Amino acid sequence: MSQLFSFPVKEGSSSVFAGTGFEVMKSKYLGAHGHIAISTNHIQRAIAYLKRQGVNTLPETAKEKDGKLKAIYLDSEISGFAVHLLQK
After folding, report:
1. pTM
2. What pLDDT, in 10s, does the model give residues 39-86?
3. How far apart are alpha carbons 69 and 67 in whole angstroms?
4. What's the fold here for domain 2-87?
5. pLDDT (average), residues 3-11
6. Contacts of 69 (CB under 8 A, 6+ apart)
7. Which GO terms describe its molecular function (predicted)?
8. Contact yes or no for 84/75 (Cβ under 8 A)
């Protein structure tokens, strides 16, 4: 991915990033086929909106930094992909 699109590679502890748009996990996590991240300007607003649509989150997947929610997975998969919200 990085060579094809000339994205810089960033090695993380649990994944490898190609630019800011692609992440490849080093080990299997949620989702039969992997996961899709959706970046949002306001993660709490996104959660409230999705809840009104009947979609819940998985509290045990919540990741915080400095006391603020940074990422959380939804409770259902889409075509075998887990979906998580990511605070920009």
Report:
1. 0.79
2. 899 999 999 999 999 999 999 999 999 999 999 999 999 999 999 999
3. 7
4. glyoxalase-related enzyme like fold (3.30.1900)
5. 88
6. 43, 44, 62, 63, 87
7. kinase activity
8. no
From CA 42, how far away is CA 47, in angstroms rounded? Answer: 9
Domain boundaries, the chain: 2-87
In degrees rounded to 5, what are phi and psi of residue 43? -60, -40
Closest to 79 in 3D by CA, of 28, 37, 33:
33
Measured CA to CA, the distance from residue 3 to residue 7 in angstroms comes to 7
State how far the Cα of 62 lies from the Cα of 53, in Å rounded to an integer.
20
Give the per-residue SS3 of the chain: CHHHHCCCEEECCCEEEECCCEEEECCCCCCCCEEEEEEECCHHHHHHHHHHCCCCECHHHCEEECCEEEEEEECCCECCEEEEEEEC
